[in-house]
Amino acid sequence: MLQIPWTAKKTNERVLNEANKRRSLVRTIRKRQATFLGHVMRRGKLEHLVTTGKFEGKRSRGRQREKIMDGLATWLGPGKVSDILAAVKDRDLLRDMIANAYKQGT
């Protein structure tokens, strides 16, 4: 990109700022996750149970893994997981939430 040597010890954020670029892969992945979530939640099958964390079974020791819903709740804006689950039933509302989060670039 900018022919920066590896010995320059610059962070990725600094290189992106110098190149006037933004991270787009994370935004694209989150957008697709949110779209997939809408499809899954409307169907209400096994995937619904897994993504909401209501699947029975033993938990492994150690730190609890991050759930898909928690990551999407922080990405879609200030709100709770229950707000997102309520918005899933209204396609237009969910579509607007995804579009606003994608525009903000978080």
Question: What report would you give on this structure?
Answer:
It is a single chain. The protein is mainly alpha-helical. The chain is built from six helices and no strands. The longest helix is centred in the first third of the chain and has 19 residues, at 25-43. It starts with 11 loop residues before the first helix and ends with a helix. It comes from Plakobranchus ocellatus. This is Eukaryotic translation initiation factor 3 subunit f. Keywords: Initiation factor, Protein biosynthesis. GO terms for molecular function: translation initiation factor activity.
From N to C, what is the helix and strand string? HHHHHH
Task: Please report the number of helical segments.
Answer: 6
Report the sheet with the most strands, covering strand number, pairing sense and barrel closure.
none
Question: What is the β-strand count?
Answer: 0
Assembly state (oligomeric) = single chain
Low-confidence stretches: none
Described by the principal axes of the CA atoms, the overall outline is: flat
Strand proportion, as a percent range, falls in under 5%
State the helicity in percent bands: 55-70%
Mean pLDDT: 77
Secondary structural class: mainly alpha
CA radius of gyration is: 18 Å
Distance between the termini: 23 Å
